[in-house]
Write a structure and sequence with these properties.
single chain; 158 residues; alpha+beta; four-stranded antiparallel beta sheet; three-stranded antiparallel beta sheet; globular
Length: 158
C-alpha cells in the first residue's frame, strides 16, 4: 500500500493570508466558541476557544505560481479556516478529514481538471488516491468537502 501525504497550506502562503487573503480582504480573526472548524494550516479541527479566521484561498493559483502551470478558467478561490496566529502545522502524517464523504479532484500539470472521485468511506481513501495517480496525466489532487466543495488539502504526485 502506498502512503500519501496531505499538504496543508504552506507557511509562506499562511503568512500572506494572515495579512490579506486571496480575495484582497484583511484578516478578521474570531474566537471559535464551538470548535470543529476544519483548519487548513494544521489539518485538524479547531478546539473551542481558539482564535481562527475564515479566509479566501486560491490553492490552484498558488500551486500554478510554483510550477508554471496555466490553469486558466480552472483557477478558483474559496473559503478556508486557518488559525488567526501561526501554528505548528500538522501533528501527524495521517490523512485528515476522512470521516465524511469527500471528493478527490484530479488536475493535470497544466492545472486543468481531469475529473474527480467521490470517496464514501474512510477505508477507501487510499484506494481512491492510488487510482487517481495511476493516470500519468494526473499531477495534483485536491481533497474537497462534498457538502460545500471547499478545499481541504492537496496531495501531490511523488
Amino acid at each position: 500500500m502506498t502512503t500519501y501525504t496531505a499538504h496543508p497550506i504552506g507557511p509562506a502562503a499562511l503568512k500572506e493570508l494572515r495579512d490579506t487573503d486571496d480575495a484582497g480582504r484583511r484578516l478578521a480573526p474570531l474566537t471559535d466558541e464551538e470548535g470543529g472548524a476544519p483548519l487548513r494550516c494544521c489539518l485538524r479541527r479547531s478546539e473551542p476557544g481558539e482564535r481562527i479566521a475564515l479566509v479566501s484561498y486560491a490553492p490552484l493559483r498558488r500551486w500554478a505560481a510554483e510550477t508554471g502551470a496555466e490553469p486558466g478558467a480552472y483557477d478558483e478561490q474559496g473559503p478556508v479556516f486557518i488559525h488567526a496566529d501561526a501554528c505548528a502545522g500538522p501533528a501527524t502524517d495521517a490523512l485528515p478529514f476522512t470521516n465524511a464523504h469527500r471528493t478527490v479532484r484530479r488536475y493535470s500539470a497544466e492545472g486543468h481538471i481531469l475529473g474527480g472521485h467521490l470517496v464514501e468511506t474512510p477505508t477507501t481513501f487510499d484506494e481512491a488516491l492510488t487510482a487517481a495517480f495511476t493516470d500519468p496525466e494526473v499531477a495534483l489532487l485536491h481533497v474537497r468537502a462534498v457538502e460545500y466543495g471547499c478545499f481541504l488539502y492537496e496531495v501531490r504526485r511523488g
